[in-house]
Amino acid sequence: MTISIDIVNKSFWKDKQTIRVLEDLRLSIIPGEFVTVIGPSGCGKSTLLKIISGLDTAYDGQILIGGRRITEPGMKQGFIFQEHRLFPWLTAAALAAETTHLKFLVALRPGLMQPSVAARMTSTLDRLSGGRLLINVVAGGSKEELEGDGLFISHDERYEATEEFLTIWKRLLNGENVQFHGKHLQAENGRLLFSPAQTPHPPVFFGGSSAAGIQAAAKHTDVYLTWGEPPAQVKEKIAQVKKQAEKEGRTVKFGIRLHVIVRDTEEEAWQAAEHLIRHLDQKTIDEAQKVLQRMDSVGQRRMVELHQGRKDKLEISPNLWAGIGLVRGGAGTALVGDPQTAAERILEYESLGIDTFIFSGYPHLEEAYYLAELVFPLLPFKRSGATGLSVPAGEIIGNNHFPDAASAASSS
Predict the structure, then answer these.
(1) How far is residue 128's CA from residue 196's CA, in Å, rounded to a whole number?
(2) Does CATH place domain 3-69 in 3.40.50.300?
(3) Domain spanning 85-206, CATH architecture
(4) What is the Cα–Cα distance from 295 to 143, expressed in whole angstroms?
(5) β 253-262/334-337 pair status
(6) What H or E segment, with its residue span, contains residue 367?
(7) Which long-range contacts (CB under 8 A, 24 or more apart) does 298-302 make?
(8) Nearest Cα to 254, choosing from 232, 222, 230?
(9) Residue 15 — left, alpha, or beta (φ > 0 → left; ψ -120 to 50 → alpha)?
(10) Could you give the C-alpha distances from 162 to 37, 48, 91, 96, in angstroms and in order?
(11) How many CA atoms lie within 13 A of 247 on its CB side?
(12) CATH 3.40.50.300 placement within the chain
């Protein structure tokens, strides 16, 4: 069936002005044809897909599929795309059934879902995986991206909303009956019948380099995450977070997010790093940096400042390479070196207080093998114990509570 997009316009209302994300869009897609939609965050890509699927009907113009105008979701149209709120959960759920020790760090996006829904998803996946779920709270770093998802709040308000979200989420997972009336979120008689495998909840990972982000992390995170900055900057950030956490009467652990490029020799490792960006010209770098510099994320700004968009000064600290951040948002640095050097750098971060390392590479599978085979034998490891899983006794009574274990046993 042919998809016909005929003069489609879509706008959002914000701050007493109209923001247009789609303007006079015309497109025809015939059977067997593939179309790639490319653009920066907030340009309307996801909005267009929602309109085509019938999930969003508040637009001007018309969309026809097989000559039929789309006015609502239906069985004849659908789409699959990288929805950041769902894909990690689906991937983790699929892998949980095939693994026994692997843990899953899955993103939660406050502001884009309700804390009650997030609590149910958390409990379900934690139980299905036998207590192997970890939660990565992502407040968001791009105003344009969030507005494309319909969330129109300021940078500091994002962290206010995140604090309210985590307060409700934690209380639900702890088995409380939740009454909450905040600036951004409300909950009345909120309950969660199935508790997670881990008590009181799966560990929370959270990062934020701004004052608002550090404050929220100090109140709620179990593991504070930083991107791969030079050791001196990481040391300073750890001190800031510890100080703020002490004010809240809490202690937190620390983790770091890094890429890694390890080879048998230093020379081979640096050659592999340069190989990654061999086709990257200055025009492409400048275009990427314009997008990254528009973000209101303090952490992203700190990443950009490490390399300043230049290819000639990418080793920003011994064996810490910022080449990935020339075009990639978020974690933009990699440890580069031979196995012994890589292990030494990892242990250097550990000496600062980092005890959790989240590594990745390009291509990911091959770099995972390099790291595991060459570097892991040089590092000390600790294995965590198994997590017990509580099992409710009997069926839910009136959608409200479970029978006590004694009553369930006597009736069997």
Answers:
(1) 9
(2) yes
(3) Alpha-Beta Barrel (3.20)
(4) 7
(5) parallel
(6) helix 364-370
(7) 298/208, 298/209, 298/210, 298/213, 299/141, 299/207, 299/208, 299/209, 299/210, 299/213, 299/226, 299/227, 300/141, 300/329, 300/330, 302/209, 302/227, 302/229, 302/233
(8) 222
(9) left
(10) 31, 28, 24, 27
(11) 11
(12) 3-69
Q: How many beta carbons lie within 10 A of that of residue 111, not counting itself?
A: 22
- Give the separation between CA 102 and CA 83, rounded to whole angstroms: 23
Per-residue pLDDT averaged across 297-309, rounded?
85
Distance (Å, whole) CA 44 – CA 262: 39
Cα separation, 50 vs 22, in Å, equals 12
Predicted TM-score (pTM) of this structure: 0.71
Q: Among 289, 336, 330, which residue's Cα sits nearest to residue 317?
A: 336
Q: Could you count the other beta carbons within 10 Å of the beta carbon of residue 101?
A: 9
Residue 235 contacts residue 205 (beta carbons within 8 Å):
no
Q: Could you give the residue range(s) of every CATH 3.20.20.30 domain in the chain?
A: 85-206
Whether the pLDDT of residue 73 is over 50: the answer is: yes
Cα-based distances in Å from 224 to 171, 206, 228, 259, 383 = 20, 5, 13, 18, 20
Tokens 């890094």 correspond to: 258
| pLDDT above 60 (res 391) | no
Confidence of residue 85 (pLDDT cuts 50, 70, 90): very low
* CA proximity to 295, closest of 68, 142, 108: 142
